[in-house]
Design a protein that fits this description.
- This protein is of the alpha+beta class.
- The chain has one helix and five strands.
- The longest helix is centred in the C-terminal third of the chain and has 12 residues.
């Protein structure tokens, strides 16, 4: 699911600890959205966010860590 950032309301974005420090491959996740974890490309801060359900967040992170 994707939506415009204006539809998210007041969320606090933070850069993923897995993002590198040279400006590439940077994603941000947001806290404060009920029932979902918004994810966006930090280089396109006003672009869309992908919403991952809170229940799917743990399995999603595990799959990313496993390289799937």
């Amino acid at each position: 699911m994707a939506m415009n950032l204006g539809e998210l309301g007041a969320v606090v974005w933070r850069k993923s600890s897995y993002s590198n420090g040279d400006g590439g491959n940077c994603i941000e996740v947001a806290d404060g959205a009920a029932g979902v974890v918004p994810v966006r490309d930090s280089k396109v801060a006003d672009g869309p966010a992908i919403l991952i359900t809170a229940a799917a967040w743990g399995p999603f992170v595990a799959a990313v860590k496993a390289g799937l």
